[in-house]
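Box 3.1 — From sequence to structure: 8-oxo-dGTP pyrophosphatase MutT (NUDIX family)
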Amino acid sequence: MTLHANAVALLENWRPDDFGQESLRQAYLGFLAAREDSCRRECAAGHLTASAVVLDASGEHVLLTLHPRVGRWLQLGGHCEPGDAGLVEAALREATEESGIDGLTIDPTPAHLDVHPITCSLGVPTRHFDVRFAVHAPAGAQAVRSDESDDLQWWPVSELPPDSEDLLPMISAATWRGSRGEPVGVRSGDG
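Predicted structure (token representation):
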């Protein structure tokens, strides 16, 4: 199955509890139907990206990166790569690369969607159709900053950095799924 077909199947099968998220899900599906290249960063009209809301083993802290190009604290994640089988694998790969943590587990059901304008690697304004997943770190995990970050820190979910209020819906959705005891499906290193 191609990355595009995988993204379509994932979003067709997901049923968000929130009307706004359902509306975005429908918009994503429309964009995917219109653009076969919608999962590739070369798609200048916009493209799907995969993010990871990395939570510690207790679910009380979230790992955020100080993004060098954006200049603010954000979740881990990024563009899909040609070798990614799907959005779940892309989010887990990005989380592992950007956190330096082995043994991350990802809930394969999307936690949150967000569309935002950005000038990314294309050098032209575009949009990211971001699909966000809840990811859990093993107990005692120590994050290691990669060259894709100016800083990397665990933040209490109740005390996020200044000017990060827009992250609250995403973090709330990820922690809510975890609090329901949803099963996790993929662990980094499982291949």
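Summary of the box: The domain at 3-179 is CATH 3.90.79.10 (Nucleoside Triphosphate Pyrophosphohydrolase).
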